[in-house]
Design a protein that fits this description.
The complex is a heterodimer of chains A (379) and B (396). By secondary structure, chain A is α+β, with helices and mostly antiparallel strands. Chain A contains eleven helices and ten strands. Chain B folds into three domains: 122 residues, Acyl-CoA dehydrogenase/oxidase, N-terminal domain (Butyryl-Coa Dehydrogenase, subunit A, domain 1, Orthogonal Bundle), CATH 1.10.540.10; 104 residues, Beta Barrel (Butyryl-CoA Dehydrogenase, subunit A, domain 2), CATH 2.40.110; 148 residues, Butyryl-CoA Dehydrogenase, subunit A, domain 3, CATH 1.20.140. The chains are: A alpha+beta (379), B alpha+beta (396).
């Protein structure tokens, strides 16, 4: 497949860019932070995203969606990276939708996907039990009880948990704490008895929370996929999450790079524009080269999701490892090349750097994916 | 069956029937890749035959016009031919600066007479071309070159010195940048001329490199007579041609980062040297992540070559990307050999001895240090990206 966008994907990208830069620029995130917003996102903006069809991009047509695919959704994610727009898009429209598409029963799909498309049902995906991504380290337990289950345990750093109507939670139905096998995924009503959600504030001003589950009783149909057999679903979600986070990180990298080059053309020192100094030019040119490399691996990985490529996990890890490195480079250089003003809260560059670091940590940082890449190649 | 599918089937059958088995083995030594020319010693009959059958169809230059001996293939057909050659690990039948550099320039800028004189011989590999660009005092600042070319009425007279001339002692002809107007601005007084290396006044002297090899020469030009019809393009148009040629050279050097399918991967080298894995992993965990990082970087690089190709075909390309590819590709190739020598430890640094392939790896490792210097240094590529793509102003 050619590594270029088709006409429809290009149109979606342009429309996302237009909408987000007009209705949800970085100043919106700044305002949400300054006002200590209850929800952490702007509901009116989300409603408009829903009207644009974004909540249904990954939903099959049979369930009311657009079935537009991951390359298309990736363009929206990339543009979200450029504006740092806070919304339920990743948690609900990408991750929960992918989980339900992959493992949901027909009944679950019928009940949940149309509501996702309409924007009425928000999700959060709760896999982590610590600050670093280790999806097979699951101590939370699900014990069979009557017709259903009882859940106990703690989940950490769950994005969007406090605004979610439903939580998709991993819990152990068998095996030891670090076994890849024996894990199951459950869909829990966030208002259920025994569910305690405590919001935490991370540097990126986006939603995160700690989750405590104490004797949460679930019916049998709360199970997503087969009992004890969530490993392949978790692998798939790891790939989906990292490819879309990579798109966001690519958007962040491009935006910071363009703002920085623009600043180099405006700021004068010693009577000359700082962009005329070779020491700085070469750093900008190096970043350009790195961003070009990142773009190629991102579109390749997005296509791999759409065609269900046998190399999907390998490409997903290569993608996250590469784009994380590029985003770290570009955000660090973005601050440095802006000089003192780059250290101020007034300038937006800091917002990009903070979000880049959180996005890298979510679902595994550069080092995690280097290791995963090597393991997948059997070394 | 579409025409292209038919072309693929026929090409596959023809290659199977005509590519000798020995020409499907990995290129190990310099001589394994045929450079052609009057002084070329074919390593065996197969190499000669492979060149001849391919050249007869013009498939040494598949997308050049058939009227000058090229293959006359469309872009799609050329791609199919490459893929089919790649499929059976067929070596390129000919590798030369004629094909990669002066040929494309002649096709774009040369007179009809020059094309008829030189292109068919390039396709057939009859002439080994060398490049006269750099001078002792003009490397990165190539446009400052001082080799004089005076108009003597019915001919030109060339005086000066070139350096880093690849294989000048084996080459038959040189394409050479000369100063035809010493009073013009430096970029505006340069021309490109062609001459036979046996012309009186041409003398070459090899340069020994850190690798122990001498692939480059100094070339001294004393009162060298150049015929007027061997001027390529117009007088003082040389810088435009040189830039065009350099774009081709960059693409070629940048492509060195590309690992052939038949080559052993870095991690396989590491596994073999370590004598296997420990608990399913390379025991040297720091080396493991270094290798993973490189393998991811080269994947991103190869995908970028592919993407830029696809964008060009779709007409959405941003252009001026040869500098980016040259910069990234050569830096990655240098890293590859740093990792390879590290993987092999002191054996990777052996200089002599049959047990160590006569120091082949060490010599290859040292050769790669030139990748980011030749064809415009990495720093020059970064200058070009800054100026032409990013629009960052020059200091002067």
């Amino acid at each position: 497949m050619a590594l270029v966008l088709n006409e429809e994907q290009t149109m979606l990208k342009e429309s996302a860019q237009g909408f987000l830069s007009e209705h949800a620029p970085v100043s919106q995130l700044r305002q949400l932070r300054d006002e200590r917003s209850e929800t952490g996102y702007d509901k009116a903006t989300w409603q408009q995203m829903v009207e644009l069809g974004w909540s249904g991009i990954l939903v099959p047509e049979a369930h009311g969606g657009l079935a537009f695919g991951h390359v298309g959704m990736g363009q929206v994610m990339e543009e979200n990276g450029r504006t740092l727009t806070a919304s339920p898009l990743l948690s609900t429209a990408v991750l929960a939708t992918s989980a339900i598409n992959y493992a949901g029963s027909e009944t679950q799909k019928k009940a949940l996907l149309p509501a996702v498309v309409e924007g009425n049902l928000l999700f959060a995906l709760a896999l982590d039990e610590g600050p670093k991504y280790r999806p097979s380290l699951v101590k939370a337990t699900a014990t069979a009880s009557g017709e259903g289950y009882v859940l106990n345990g703690e989940k950490q750093f769950v994005a969007d948990a406090h605004i979610a109507d439903r939580l998709i939670v991993s819990a152990r139905t068998s095996g030891d704490a670090n076994d890849a096998q024996g894990i199951s995924l459950f869909i829990i009503d966030s208002a259920a008895s025994g569910v305690d959600i405590e919001r935490v504030h991370l540097a990126d001003s986006r939603n995160s929370a700690m989750l405590r589950l104490s004797h949460v009783t679930l019916p049998a149909d709360a199970l997503l996929g087969e009992q004890g057999d969530a490993a392949s679903l978790i692998t798939y979600l790891t790939d989906v999450a990292n490819i879309h986070l990579s798109a966001e990180l690519l958007g962040i990298s491009q935006e910071v790079f363009e703002r920085t080059v623009q600043y180099m053309k405006e700021r004068s020192q010693y009577g000359a524009l700082i962009g005329s100094y070779q020491a700085l030019q070469h750093r900008a040119a190096h970043m350009f080269s790195e961003i070009e490399l990142a773009k190629s691996i991102v579109i390749k990985a997005q296509q791999a999701l759409d065609v269900n490529d046998s190399q999907l996990s390998l490409l997903a890890s290569a993608c996250k490892a590469k784009v994380s490195a590029v985003a770290t480079l570009v955000t660090n250089e973005g601050v440095q090349l802006h000089g003192g003003i780059g250290m101020t809260d007034e300038l937006d560059i800091g917002f990009f750097m903070k979000r880049a670091r959180v996005a890298e940590q979510q679902f595994g940082d550069r080092r995690y994916h280097l290791q995963r890449f090597a393991s997948l190649q059997n070394y | 069956m579409s025409d292209l599918e038919q072309f693929r089937t026929q090409t596959r059958e023809w290659l199977e029937a005509n590519c000798p088995a020995s020409q499907r083995l990995p290129v190990m030594a310099f001589e394994d890749r045929c450079w052609g020319g009057t002084k070329w010693c074919f390593v065996n009959e197969d190499q000669k035959q492979w060149l001849e059958v391919m050249a007869e169809r013009g498939w040494t230059a598949p997308d050049w016009p058939a009227e000058y001996g090229g293959g006359g293939l469309s872009k799609e057909e050329t791609k199919i031919l490459r893929e089919e050659m790649y499929r059976i690990d067929a070596r390129p039948p000919l590798f030369s600066m004629g094909l990669s550099m002066i040929g494309p320039a002649l096709l774009k800028y040369g007179s009809e007479e020059l094309k008829r004189q030189h292109i068919p011989n390039i396709v057939k590999g009859k002439i080994w071309w060398c490049q006269g660009y750099s001078e002792p005092n003009y490397g990165s600042d190539l446009a400052g070159l001082q080799t004089r070319c005076e108009d003597k009425g019915d001919h030109f007279l060339v005086n000066g010195q070139k350096v880093w001339t690849s294989y000048a002692e084996r080459a038959d002809w040189m394409f050479c940048l000369v100063r035809t107007d010493p009073n013009a601005a430096k970029h505006a007084g340069i021309s490109l001329v062609l001459f036979d290396m046996t012309t009186p006044g041409v003398r070459t002297s090899p340069i020994k490199l850190i690798s122990g090899n001498s692939p480059f020469c100094e070339t001294f030009l004393d009162d060298v007579r150049v015929e007027k019809d061997q001027l390529v393009g117009n007088i003082n148009q040389g810088w435009e041609l040189a830039s065009y040629l350099l774009t081709h050279e960059r693409a070629m050097i940048g492509n060195m980062g590309h690992t052939a399918a038949s080559e052993k991967s870095l991690h396989q080298h590491a596994i073999d040297v370590a004598g296997g894995l420990e608990n399913g992993q390379l025991g040297d965990t720091a080396l493991r992540t270094d290798i993973a990082q490189w393998e991811i970087d080269i994947l991103a690089f190869e995908l970028t070559q592919e993407r830029i190709d696809d964008e060009t075909k779709a007409g959405t390309g941003t252009g001026a990307t040869s500098s980016m590819l040259k910069y990234a590709g050569t830096e990655l190739n240098k890293q590859r050999f740093e990792l390879l020598t590290a993987i092999h430890g002191q054996a990777g640094l052996a200089w002599e001895g049959e047990a160590f392939d006569d120091g082949l790896l060490a010599s290859q490792w040292l050769r790669t240090k030139g990748n980011s210097i030749e064809g415009g240094t990495s720093e020059i590529q970064l200058n070009i990206i800054s100026k032409r793509i990013l629009g960052l102003g020059q200091k002067a």
